[in-house]
Amino acid sequence: MQSGIMIDGLISRRTEGTPQGSPLSPLLSNTVLDGLDKELEGRGHRFVRYADDCNIFVCSREAGERVMQSLSSFIENRLKLKINGEKSKVYEVKESKFLGYIVLNNGMLAVSHQSIKRIKEKIKSITCRNRGVKFEHIITEPNLKLRGLLNYFRYAKSHKPVRTLDAWIRRKLRCYRINPHCSVLKQKYL
Fold this sequence. Notes:
The protein is α+β, with helices and mostly antiparallel strands. 46% of the residues lie in helices and 13% in strands. It has helices spanning 24-32, 34-43, 61-77, 113-126, 135-152, 160-178, and strands at 5-7, 10-12, 46-50, 53-57, 97-98, 101-103, 109-111. The strands form three sheets. A three-stranded antiparallel β-sheet has the order 5-6-7. Strands 1-2 form a two-stranded antiparallel sheet. Helix 4 runs parallel beside helix 6 (160-178) and helix 5 (135-152) packs antiparallel against helix 6. The longest helix is centred in the last third of the chain and has 19 residues, at 160-178.
C-alpha cells in the first residue's frame, strides 16, 4: 500500500522515506543510528535514544555546544544523514522533553505539560455535553485511555500533575452528568 504526503491540503505521491507511524520507521532508525550509539558510548556520553529522537546529557551549555557541533559533523559526514536544525538544540535539563516526559534537575522523570494538555483535549472531546451518549459509555472511554496513559507514564516520579488531572476529569464528568441535555433523545415515528 502506498501512502501519500499531504502538502497544503493536497495529497502528493511519496518518493522517499517511510510513512509516519510505520513500524518500519523505528526499525530503520535503530539500524542506521547504531553507529551513533557506538560513537556516543565510545566518547563516554550519557544519552537516551528512541528511533530518531536522542537526548545527550552533558555538564554545561558550552559542553553541549561542543558535543552538538562534533556529533552533527559525525552524523552528516560519517552516517550521511541530515540533521533537523529546527528540532536539534542545546537545552537545560529542565527544558528538555522526551517521549512525553520531562527530566527534572535531580534526574527523576515527570509528565510534560504538553502531554497533560493533549490528554485534556482528548477527554474534552469525549465528555462534550452535546454528544448524546449515555453517561455509562462516557465513563468507560476515559477509563480506557487513562489506564493506557497511567501505564505509559508509570516511570514519572512526580504524581502531582496526575492528581490534578484526575480532579479535572471528575469535574468534567460531573458537568456532563448534571447537564439536562446529556440524555439520549428518543423519538418514535408511527
